[in-house]
Request: fold
Amino acid sequence: MIKLLLILIAPIVMFFYIKQSSMNENIQKYSYLRNNTWLMPVVVTIVWIIFYFFTLIGVTSSTQYNMGFFTLLLAALFSFLINSVLEELFYRVWLQTRLEALIGTWPAIIISSLLWAVWHMAIMGGDSYNVPLSTVMVNHGVRGLFLGFLWAKYRNVWILIIIHGIINWPTQLITGFF
Reply:
C-alpha cells in the first residue's frame, strides 16, 4: 500500500502542481531523446539475458516456493505489475526524466539508481544495516545504472519492464513448464 502511495499517487498529484510545458522543453534538451528504434535496445536486452542466465557471472538462483504453481503464477503476475511496471514508470520514466531536465543525464541516472537501490534495502535482509546496504548498492545500484542508461539512450519503457520482470520472475515458474 505504501509503495502505491509513494510511487504512483505522489507523482500523479505532483503533475497537477508542476507546469509540464517548461519541464518538457528541458527534458528534450538534456536527454538522449532522439530517433530511437526497437532494434538496438532489443539487441542489448538479448545480450544482457545471455550474460544473466548463461554465463559464469550470472546471478540467477532457483528459489523453491512452498505453494502451488497457479498461486505462484498469480503472485508473480501481481508482483510484476507492482514491482516491474510501477517501479520502472516511477524511477526511470518519471523521476529520472525530470532529474535529467534539472541536472543532466548522468547525474540523473546515478541519483535515480541510488534511490532505487535504497528502496530495495528492506527486501535484502541481513542482521545489520551495513550488509544489506552494501549488497543493495552493488546489486541494485549497478542494475539501476544499466536500466537508467537504457532509458536515457532509447526511451523504451517496455525494454526496461521486460528486463526488470526477468530479474524478479521466479525461476521455479519457468522450470515448472518443463
Observations:
- The chain has a mean pLDDT of 76.
- The longest helix spans residues 69-103.
- The chain is about 80% helix and 0% strand.
- The two ends are 35 Å apart (CA to CA).
